Amino acid sequence: MRIGTGSTKSNGPSTWSRHSLKYYMSNNIVVGILKKICLSILIILGLYWVIITIRTEVLVDDRGYTLDSVSRDTGSDVDSDGDKGKGYGIMSPCRPVGLSDDPLPITALSSSPGSGNTWTRFLIQQLTGIATGSVYKASWMKQAGYPGEGLTNGSVVVVKTHMLPYKKFQFDKAVLILRNVKSAMIAEQKRRHYWSFNRGSREMFKDEDWERFTMIYGDDWLNHNTEWIQISEPLYIVLYDNLMNDLKSELRKLAQYLGFTADESLLDCIHNHKNSLKKKKNMTELYPFNKETELRLDGYLEEICQALQTRYNDFDCTPLYAF
Ligand SMILES: *[C@@H]1O[C@H](CO)[C@@H](O)[C@H](O)[C@H]1NC(C)=O
Ligand SMILES: *[C@@H]1O[C@H](CO)[C@@H](O)[C@H](O)[C@H]1NC(C)=O
């Protein structure tokens, strides 16, 4: 009796749960619930995407190009890059890219965020066939066509940095990409909002965050570029607008500075594959700067132009002023 009751009590629940588990499994109820959860998550993500897409305006500059289509550039000194390497199509359209067998001089590829650093890395990789490195380690960049991501040694042709020249890393030489502070700031703000509800909407240029950002970014831009222009030796300047407007001759000069020569067919190929330049409909104008900010930023452009002309006598600042 006692044994019987005991065995019933101890067997009962376990038999029940064993059977019921089998029952649930065999009827795919557990699997069904999991599927429903997954489906719900997908639907929520999908709705979010739809809302963001509907809210997205096509923000273009006065040349009819989307403002950051060429340079979805990267973060700050605590970088983890926001650029997913999208929009560049196949990352090696003209030649394969690999680490250098012979050690190269360690060359900085310096810029303020939003100045086209990632795009320039793509161009340099195609120009030289050598991978570009970075003082940051954005691991997915390796898969996105930048096999030298995270390297800062002689195996890479240039090393991306948004840091000041005397910070932490030593370079033998440097390339500084200079882009108009307003255009770069807009590109960077759009990158910062890549995952935000305001992505692609002009709301991201209206709130307090934008006001604060114009202050912080502007000062950083001035500081970063002043330091590199004054301190770095030797230094080569790439003006973003020159790259945009006269890619082949800019790449020819850049190749020479990096110790490479580029033949015409290669330059033609790269030119034909600067495919991140997508022309969009000219729907809206965007100039999200009030008078006060404009004056301040124009002053910064003036200061950088003076620093450039102090260092290089007859430096033409016109492309830097172009917005
Ligand atoms: C875009 O539109 C603005 C005015 O709405 C105009 O000034 C500008 O020239 C246009 N740009 C292009 C490339 O059509
Ligand atoms: C650079 O670092 C990578 C990874 O640690 C290494 O494989 C490579 O040999 C290094 N190159 C040089 C020139 O030291």
TrEMBL record:
Sulfotransferase domain ranges (all copies): 156-285
InterPro entries, A to Z: P-loop_NTPase, Sialate-O-sulfotransferase, Sulfotransferase_dom
Gene3D superfamilies, per database record: P-loop containing nucleotide triphosphate hydrolases
Pfam families the UniProt entry points to: Sulfotransfer_1
Superkingdom of origin organism: Eukaryota
Transmembrane regions listed in the UniProt entry: 29-51
Keywords noted in UniProt: Membrane, Transmembrane, Transmembrane helix
A GO term, aspect molecular function: sulfotransferase activity
Stated family: Belongs to the WSCD family.
Official protein name in the record: Sulfotransferase domain-containing protein
Organism: Owenia fusiformis
